[in-house]
Write a structure and sequence with these properties.
The chain is α+β, with helices and mostly antiparallel strands. It is 33% helix and 33% strand. It contains 4 helices and 4 strands, in the order E-H-H-E-E-H-H-E. The chain has a 4-stranded antiparallel β-sheet with strand order 2-3-1-4. The longest helix is centred in the N-terminal third of the chain and has 13 residues. The chain is globular, with a radius of gyration of 13 Å. It starts with a strand and ends in a 6-residue tail after the last strand.
């Protein structure tokens, strides 16, 4: 199944705190991309988070795989997971 996953930096987490883990976060996210778990990955303008297109069996698999990311481990993000399907016109 295909999912859109949006991770937005929590309002109480300042940019400096967020930046502390940015390199490690990017390294681990790219590893998930190379595994083809994350199919597309985008930054939200202004360092406010990221958007991903993910192929997974279910939300539990997504949360399990993403749990190793520093921003998730440190509870720096609010995560929205949206299951999507092809638009009906296709």
């Amino acid at each position: 199944m295909k999912f859109f996953v949006i991770g937005k930096r929590k309002k109480d987490i300042d940019a400096e705190k967020f930046a502390e883990f940015a390199d490690e976060e990017a390294k681990k996210a790219i590893a998930l991309f190379k595994e083809e778990f994350i199919r597309e990955l985008y930054s939200i303008k202004g360092g406010k988070g990221a958007c991903m297109i993910i192929e997974a069996r279910n939300e539990e698999e997504i949360l399990n795989k993403l749990s190793d990311l520093p921003f998730i481990k440190n509870n720096y993000l609010d995560i929205d997971i949206l299951e999507v399907k092809p638009y009906r016109g296709f």
